[in-house]
From TrEMBL:
Domain (Cupin type-2) ranges: 42-104
Domain of life from the UniProt record: Bacteria
InterPro entries reported for this sequence: Cupin_2, QDO-like, RmlC-like_jellyroll, RmlC_Cupin_sf
Gene3D superfamilies in alphabetical order: Jelly Rolls
Organism: Granulicella sibirica
Name this polypeptide is given: Cupin domain protein
Length: 172
C-alpha cells in the first residue's frame, strides 16, 4: 500500500462510540502502513477499561483536559492536562479517570489496535461522549475479551491485578 499525505480532524466520518467513549481515529494502521494508530478520545468516569496487558503495542497518552490516575509497573501516576504517560507493551496497566471527563490524544505503536476496536464500536451519532451506551463496567465482556485475545490484548484476572497492580482499587 502506498501511503499518502492527508489532513484529518475529529469529525463524524472518522469517529466512533466504543463502550461509552468517543474516539476519533486520526491515523490508523492502513494510513501508516501499520506504523502507528493516533486517536483523540473523550471519556467520562466509569468508561475505563479493566486492567489489561498488550503483547504488541506501546501506548503514549497526552492529556488535553482532565486527569487520569495510571497504574503500571508497580507505580501510580497522576497525569493531568499538558502531561504524558508512556505504557510499554508487556507491562500490565490500568487507569481511572479522576475528573468528570478526560480528553486524551493516544499514539499507539505499531498500528493495528483499532482493527480490534473497529470490530466492536458503532458510528458516532454526535461529537459527544455517548450517554446511553454500555461501558466496560456494564457490558458482558465475553465477546470483547475473545476479540482482544486475537489482537494480543488480555484482561488481567483478579489475582493478577492484586499481584501486579497492588495499588489499583479492589472495588473496580
Amino acid at each position: 500500500m502506498t501511503m499518502q499525505a492527508y489532513k484529518r480532524s475529529p469529525a463524524l466520518d472518522n469517529s466512533t462510540w466504543y463502550k461509552g467513549i468517543l474516539i476519533s481515529q486520526l491515523a490508523a494502521g492502513p494510513d501508516t502502513n501499520g506504523a502507528f494508530d493516533f486517536a483523540e478520545s473523550k471519556m467520562k468516569k466509569g468508561t475505563e477499561p479493566p486492567p489489561h496487558i498488550h503483547d504488541r503495542e506501546d501506548e503514549l497518552f497526552y492529556i488535553l483536559a482532565g486527569e487520569l490516575k495510571v497504574f503500571a509497573d508497580g507505580q501510580v501516576f497522576t497525569v493531568a492536562a499538558g502531561e504524558t504517560v508512556f505504557l510499554p507493551r508487556n507491562i500490565p496497566h490500568a487507569y481511572l479517570i479522576q475528573s468528570d471527563e478526560c480528553h486524551v490524544l493516544a499514539l499507539i505503536t505499531p498500528g493495528g489496535f483499532f482493527t480490534a476496536i473497529n470490530k466492536m464500536n458503532a458510528p458516532a451519532r454526535a461529537m459527544t461522549i455517548p450517554s446511553d451506551m454500555e461501558t466496560y463496567a456494564t457490558a458482558d465482556l465475553t465477546d470483547t475479551m475473545a476479540i482482544f485475545t486475537k489482537y494480543g490484548i488480555r484482561m488481567l484476572s483478579p489475582a493478577e491485578i492484586a499481584e501486579q497492580l497492588p495499588a489499583y482499587p479492589a472495588a473496580h
